[in-house]
Write a structure and sequence with these properties.
The protein has 237 residues and is of the alpha/beta class. It has one domain: Alpha-Beta Complex (Spore Coat Polysaccharide Biosynthesis Protein SpsA, Chain A), CATH 3.90.550.10. It is built from 8 helices and 7 strands. It has a 7-stranded mixed β-sheet, sandwiched between helices. Strand 2, helix 2 and strand 3 form a beta-alpha-beta unit. Helix 5 packs parallel to helix 8. The protein starts with a strand and ends in a 10-residue tail after the last helix.
Length: 237
């Protein structure tokens, strides 16, 4: 199957990382097996991120951006990216570069057979507190969704665009992308990827956000699951 890929990069106050993001993504695109472009989604950054993004996009035709008028959060940034993408595949990576764009190739090996392929962060380089809180959050989410995903928070994913555009996003639902694909009767897979220390910038969320947020969002997911509309067109003319 022929594919092309747009990599979504949500950005919130990451001006210390963005030139490195540009280099890493450009290096990946230079050797990518399929045609690849980048879409920055600036989520109302209060630092100089937008200026840097504009300069990157001005100098590189494969880089594009959309800019929010204020901070709406990660789910909104992902939703906006999905809305604007026209390629057959959507990739997702965080601008802190704790995962590598080169590992998109590991996910692409399975995308013909699956609707969403997500990474599992191997040998995580986060703090003990962050690792434990993430482990607990994943356990809470799995008990609600039964999606079998070990690391749904891994910021390296590829989704078929036709499936992504059918996901009804709300705040917090970025944690449930695999579960939402399952509601469509789609297929999901997880693949080990590398993980690195954050070199610059600061995380946006503390330990309570990583625990209370997922717990609250699980109830929203259950409501969505109960109300979710799924259909398949058999014919048209």
């Amino acid at each position: 199957m022929n594919h092309n890929l747009t990599i979504l990069v949500p950005v919130y106050n990451e001006d210390e990382n963005l030139k490195r993001v540009e280099k890493e993504l450009q290096d990946y695109m230079n050797q990518a097996k399929i045609h690849t472009s980048v879409l920055f989604v600036n989520d109302g950054s209060k630092d100089t991120s937008l200026d840097i993004i504009r300069q990157i996009c001005k100098e590189n035709s494969a880089f594009h951006y959309i800019n929010f008028d204020k901070n709406y959060g990660l789910s909104a940034a992902i939703k906006a990216g999905i809305d604007y993408v026209v390629t057959s595949l959507i990739g997702y990576i965080d601008s802190d570069l704790q995962t590598s764009p080169r590992d998109f190739d590991l996910l692409l090996e399975y995308i013909d057979e699956y609707d969403l392929v997500t990474g599992i962060r191997s040998s995580r380089k986060d703090s003990f507190v962050k690792n434990v809180s993430s482990l607990l959050a994943n356990g809470i989410r799995r008990s609600f969704t039964h999606d079998g995903m070990e690391d749904t928070g891994c910021p390296l994913k590829i989704i078929k665009t036709k499936s992504a555009k059918r996901i009804p996003m709300f705040n917090g639902l970025h944690r449930f992308l695999p579960a939402m694909i399952l509601l469509q009767k789609g297929k999901i897979k997880q693949v080990p990827v590398r993980h690195f220390e954050r070199i610059a910038g600061k995380p946006s969320f503390g330990v309570w956000n990583r625990l209370l947020g997922p717990l609250i969002d699980c109830f929203a997911y259950l409501y969505m699951k109960k109300k979710y509309i799924n259909y398949k067109v058999s014919d048209k003319g």
